[in-house]
Specification:
Elements lengths: L2 H13 L2 H8 L3 H15 L4 E3 L4 E3 L1 H28 L4 E7 L5 H13 L3 E7 L2 H9 L5 E4 L8 E16 L20 E4 L6 H13 L5 E5 L3 H9 L5 E4 L10 E5 L6 E9 L5 H17 L1
Parallel strand pairs: 3-4, 3-5, 7-8
Antiparallel strand pairs: 1-2, 5-11, 6-9, 6-10, 6-11
Helix pairs in contact: 1-2, 1-3, 1-4, 5-9
Length: about 300
């Protein structure tokens, strides 16, 4: 049985006239009659009562027509769904991110969701190290992570380049000032920092800032994730150096101060696998490139 047999059957069942059905299908009547005979032979049941002047569905024909409608409807839906998947318009997209999402990143994700509302976007907060592993193991499609990353299996595109600021408890004597902070004023403070094996780029940048100021930071706490770090700062367990992206998510009990004469910045990259020929990845990259080109 082929799909054309079902379409021919539906045409005859709806027209109840072989000549009109043949005209509707743009074929001659004899081949149509032959196809219906083949279909009835394969099913093992008569689908039509036929005379010279009358065509009527049998009981078997009426049941078969109902089921055929369902089959053709499901087939049409399957074709539409397959076409959407091919265009990257439907499916599940998993994105890892480190730290917190900036207002610009959230705006981009809203724009992507408005363009592709049938794509389920799943966000997973992960360290840079875990994101690289998840990308290589194909557990996520994209990562938003911090360099340095040396892996020739991944593509990278910069999302942000942002400066560092100081995060200090609101009760700290330096919290009441508003001018840029000399990093050397923090040389005797306890620092809260992300472990190097989790966020090597972030960790090394902070150490570098302090070394350039002539001291080695006294690390009292290691914490994974920017929100955990800020929570510990609010609890007066130390100070931290964070990027300006946290200003989109103010934390009660924490004051942020610009750093004086600091040129060190932190990059945030979008990463994805090379040769990952998925249409859902291509459609995401199209919106990403359009959005961040506009924002430049």
């Amino acid at each position: 049985m082929e799909l054309r047999h079902l379409r021919y059957f539906v045409a005859v069942a709806e027209e109840l006239h072989f000549g009109k059905a043949a005209s509707r299908l743009n074929i001659s009547q004899p081949p149509l009659s032959m196809q219906i005979n083949q279909l009835e032979g394969e099913i093992g049941a008569k689908l039509f009562f036929r005379t010279k002047h009358h065509v009527e569905l049998t009981d078997a024909g009426r049941i078969f027509l109902e089921q055929t409608y369902q089959i053709l409807e499901k087939l049409e839906k399957a074709c539409i769904e397959a076409a959407k998947i091919h265009r990257g318009e439907v499916g599940q997209l998993v994105i890892g991110f480190t730290g917190s999402l900036s207002s610009q990143q959230l705006q981009f994700l809203r724009q992507y969701r408005s363009r592709f509302p049938e794509v389920e976007v799943i966000l997973k907060q992960m360290s840079t190290t875990d994101q690289v592993k998840a990308l290589l193991e194909k557990r996520i499609h994209f990562g938003m992570l911090c360099p340095p990353i040396e892996n020739n299996l991944l593509n990278f595109h910069i999302v942000h380049r942002v400066p560092f600021i100081a995060a200090i408890p609101s009760t700290h004597p330096l919290a009441s000032e508003t001018s840029p902070l000399d990093i050397r004023d923090l040389k005797n403070e306890s620092f809260i920092i992300s472990p190097r094996n989790i966020e090597p780029g972030y960790h090394d940048s902070i150490i570098s800032i302090c070394h350039q100021a002539g001291f080695t930071p006294k690390i009292s706490q290691e914490a994974e994730g920017i929100f955990t770090i800020l929570t510990l700062v609010a609890a007066e367990l130390g100070v931290a150096l964070v990027t300006t992206l946290v200003l989109d998510h103010p934390k009660q009990g924490v004051v942020f101060r610009d750093l004086k004469d600091s040129q060190t910045t932190m990059d945030l990259f979008l990463a994805w696998r090379k040769n990952d020929n998925l249409h859902i990845v291509d459609s995401f990259l199209t919106v990403f490139n359009e959005f961040f080109k506009v924002q430049e």
